[in-house]
User: Fold this.
Amino acid sequence: MGAAALALVAGCGECGARREAARVENGTRALSLAPTATFDPCPRDGSPCRLLPLGDSITYGVGSSVGGGYRVPLLRRAIADKRHITFVGRASNGPAAIGTRDAGEAPDAGVFPRGHEGYSGYTIDPCPARNGISPRVPGAIAAGEPHVILLMIGTNDIGGGCDVAGAPGRLGSLLDRIVSLAPRALLVVAEITPSDDDIFNQAAIAYNRGVRDEIARRAARGAHVVAVDMFGAFTSDPAYRTSLLDDGLHPNDRGYDRMADVWWEAIGRYTR
Assistant:
C-alpha cells in the first residue's frame, strides 16, 4: 500500500529487552517486536490463531460491499502468506466464503469465519442513548478464548459527544479489563480513523494521542499491548475523503483494505 501506516508496539511484558525493528515495506512503516520464547500468543500445534475483532460499526463492516469490513482482506492476507487464522465472536456477518488464488493451499482457505464483536453505534462505555462495548468484553473473551484481540473503539464517543475529555481514560480502564481477562493474548489497539469532518478529526487527533499515552502506561506495567495508527494510514492519502471513505465516516472497500494492511503489519509475524 502507498500509505505511511505506523504500527507502534508500545510494550510486551515478557519479551525482556525490547527489540524494536523498523521496517519499510511498500510504503508501510512499522515498529514491532518479534515473537519470543516467552511471548508467542498463537498456537504451535497447527490450529488457527483466534482473532477477536472488537469494536463498533467499523468492526462490523458498515460500508463494505460484501460485509465483513477489514476482516475479509485481512483473511486474504493471511492466506496469501500461508498463515492459519480464524475470527471469533458471538456476532456474525460477512460472506460465506472468499475467493483467493491460494485456495486449497491453507486449511479452510476459501471459508470465511464470520464471527466478530462489532456493534453499530457502540461507545467505550454505556452513554446516554448509546450502548457500550465494555459490558460485552467478559462474555466475548470467555466465548472466543482469543489469542489476538483487535480493538478499535471511540469513534461514537467522539462523534456523539460522550464524555470526550474522559474517553482516553475510559479506554484505559477497558484495556485493563481486557488484559486481566486475557493476559496471554496480544491486544492490538487501533487509533480511530478520520472522517470527512474537520471538527471531528481534530477531536480524534486528541483522542488518539490519549490512546497512545494509555497504552504506554499499560506497557510499562508489562501488558502485551500494540497500538496501530489507522488515522495516519488514511490521512497519508490526500484524497482519503473520497478514495477511502464510503459515507464520510465508514471506510469503503479500499479503506478496509488499508485497515487490513495495518492490522497485518502488526500481527502477521505472530501467526503460523
